[in-house]
Amino acid sequence: MRRFIMSRVLLLVVIGPVLAAMVWLMLTLDSRGHTRADAQGAQTAEVIAATVVGPHLNAGALTAGRFADEALSDLRQDVSQLRHDGQLLGIGVWGLDGTPLFEGSPGGSDVVRLSQSDLERAQGGQSWTVHDQTADGQARLRVFLPFRAEGTAASAGSVVQVVIPHSQLTAATEDRLLRQQVSVGVIFAVIVAGLGGLRYRLLRRERHARHDLLTGLLNRRALYEDARGLLAKASSTRPLALLLIDLSEFKSVNDTLGHTAGDLLLQQVAAALQGAVRSDDLVVRLGGDEFGVLLTSLPNTGAAQDRADQLLRRLREAPFTVHGMELAVDASIGVALAPEHGRNLPDLLQRADVAMYQAKRGRRGTTVYDPGTDQHTVGQLAMVTDLRRALENDEFVLHYQPKVSLADLKVTSVEALVRWQHPTRGLLPPGEFLPVLERSGLMQPLTRWVLREAVQQAASWRRAGMPLQVAVNISPRSLLEDDLPARVLAVLRGAELPASLLQLEVTETAVMTNPERAAFVLTQLQARGVEVAIDDFGAGYTSLALLRILPITALKIDSSLVSQMLDHAADEAVTQAVIDLAHRLGFSVTAEGVETDALLDRLAALNCDQAQGYVVSAPLPPAAFEGWLTDWRARTSSTAGRSGTPPQRISPSHG
């Protein structure tokens, strides 16, 4: 029904009949109006005939078939008075044989001859009316009435003609008719305006539902609706192609110039894409900096690659100017073909997405989906099911990697690192499953499990007289959840663990996704005693200005900075600068991924606070870690600082 109201057919199917009905009603009212005016005129004529002529049409008033002189005088006087009052134009009287008995109009203008058919109608007792006009154009109504006086024979009857002005009756009727027609017109206008307004609102709502508000392009919903019919017609000789376009380095535009500049760039990119395709192709914004183009009526499958290359050149060569600054735009485009790669939109989207990421990783610009290179992605899709099962069956475990103080080699904190105890593949490191978890939306449930498990383990160590601060990694999505502070505090209270023994590690990427929101959430946590550290510092693009406003207590330098420090003076200079900056801001510094004693010694010389890596210990299960910690403390208790025999380290093979 909604689509019918929005269609142009509504104008013919609904408005047309309504208009026809209105015209018919107006014509009917007009006809009834004139009929009513004639009836009113005839009624008036009957009254005049009965009161003016009737008293004289008796046996005593007629002599030899004519009115007596006195009767004629009275009739003329009455007719004159009525004519003067405007109620009458004239009166005529005839015998039933057609003989004129009285003529009462000025100058004889109303003298008529009755036809034989008129006399026959009168003899049959029928009355009739005639419309005509006076010499000066005045409308009048002639009413012919058969009349027979009481006590006379039927053959002695008369025909009385009463001529009355019809313009007054018609004016009154037309005035009434006009009011009725105006009412009908108003009702019709209200109906049409209501339908038109409803159609406009529905069209506007439909446009908002099917279009991206920022760029004006079709959105994902419209693509699903419109592609169904197009894909049904696709064939090997007339294929369709779905292009998935992802802009390169768009995030840096938002971070550098602001989101307003990013929005302006997206609008210009949308216009460029729309101008580079044919009118029957679909261009949609799927979300963020991701666009889709559905190419129709391709001559062959090879044309899809050519069209994708043309679009990419258009983006690379088009002038994009934002806030007076000219920006270069590049993109990665994945291409999936119908029906070769799928006959429905979800399959095409998934395969175009695979091709797009292959283009991005290979820096090839455009890539057509190749099933032969999609084995890893298919395996990841199957892994999602396994991961859901793993969450339900508690197949994840935590290993703990110690952090040692470089001043005295004491272990006062650990980092909780998740592993997957796969039922058939054994213990899997996080690199095997965390990327799939993140893309499938399962990272948040896992983060909550890790938080609960790590806090309970820290509480257990504390009750055993081994208080250790435990660090837990928080995913970007979890960091932006409104209830994160309340959930963290609830877990701490449930385990009876002081907030100071929990450190949350967040990545630079997580903070930069929404700095304001991240700062708000982290401030609430720090205010309740929970420490916060920036993880993998130096691997992302954190603005140094954020370091002075974020409520953090520690920086963890990424291994990519420290691993080559002994061989590259520039890496050591950067590491030294980060340590000095952190100390000036009141942060402690932990170096990640430390693999050698020499690197451990050099970091100590640079005043780094803590180190973490396989040179100290691999991540260990709780029981193995407890044994390692007892041995470590025994070996370091008799030494001062870094002098003497270094403590035993556990290699990755032991973990």
Question: Can you put this structure into words, describing what you see?
Answer:
- With 655 residues, the protein is of the alpha/beta class.
- It folds into 3 domains: 9-172, PAS domain (Beta-Lactamase, 2-Layer Sandwich); 220-373, Alpha-Beta Plaits, CATH 3.30.70; 395-638, TIM Barrel.
- Helices cover 49% and strands 19% of the residues.
- The chain contains 22 helices and 23 strands.
- It has an 8-stranded mixed β-barrel with strand order 15-16-18-19-20-21-22-23, surrounded by 5 helices. The protein has a 5-stranded antiparallel beta sheet with strand order 4-3-7-6-5. A 5-stranded mixed beta sheet has the order 9-10-8-13-14, with helices on both faces.
- Strand 15 (396-405) and strand 16 (411-422) form a beta hairpin.
- Helix 2 (9-53) runs antiparallel to helix 5, helix 7 runs antiparallel to helix 8 and helix 13 packs parallel to helix 15 (484-495).
Keywords:
Beta-Lactamase; 8-stranded mixed beta barrel; 655 residues; alpha/beta; 19% strand; 22 helices; TIM Barrel; 5-stranded antiparallel β-sheet; Alpha-Beta Plaits; 3 domains
Quick rundown:
This protein is an alpha/beta fold and 655 residues long. It contains 22 helices and 23 strands.
